[in-house]
Amino acid sequence: MAEAARREDWPRTIAEFEAWHARQPERWEFVAGQPRLMAPGSLTHTIIKGNVFTALTGALEGGPCHVLVDGAQILTDDISAIPDLIVTCSPLDLSTPAIAEPTIIVEVMSPWSEADDTHRKWFSYRKIPSQKHYLVVAQDRRVVQGALARERSLARALRERRRNRARRSVAAPRARPRL
């Protein structure tokens, strides 16, 4: 996600951001009090996101949950974000892109989005009562990092898991399309 230079006329609240964003031709997020331009995903990013979608859809098949990709929005008092994938087990309100009760939030991390994905967004996501899991999938190594909503810090949780040898390291889905 690219971060543009701070401008004085930029929105400073979620309400201001939502009104401002409706007039923009690009997709933006509002993270840590600042608008952030969303960079287009690389081919690797797109493949990983598709693989995670396929895995989650298969795992949740037959249940009440929906796996949403591209366009579903997390909107709270302090963040407006469009994660790579959202799982919700609540009925969908098709009149809005905002998902009121996300259960799982997934971000496919790139080098330029790492600080937002592992810190800034996590601080906002963990406040959502319905959110149970937050997953960050690396593009440059075959690793999925995860945290439970009750954990205060994603980085601290990961350090503790490594230290206690209880950290679960899951290979990222293959970054090559299968033909």
Short description, anyone?
The chain is α+β, with helices and mostly antiparallel strands.
Describe the fold and architecture.
- The chain has a domain at 41-164: Alpha-Beta Complex (tt1808, chain A), CATH 3.90.1570.20.
- The protein is 27% helix and 22% strand.
- A five-stranded mixed beta sheet has the order 3-6-7-8-9, with helices on both faces. The protein has a two-stranded antiparallel ribbon with strand order 1-2.
- It is built from four helices and nine strands; from the N terminus they run αββαβββββαββα.
- The chain has helices spanning 14-21, 43-60, 114-125, 154-164, and strands spanning 28-31, 34-37, 66-69, 74-75, 80-81, 85-88, 102-109, 133-138, 144-148.
- The longest helix is centred in the N-terminal third of the chain and has 18 residues, at 43-60.
- With 179 residues, it is of the alpha+beta class.
- The chain starts with 13 loop residues before the first helix and ends in a 15-residue tail after the last helix.
- The radius of gyration is 16 Å and the shape is globular.
- Mean pLDDT is 81; it is low at 165-173 and 175-179.
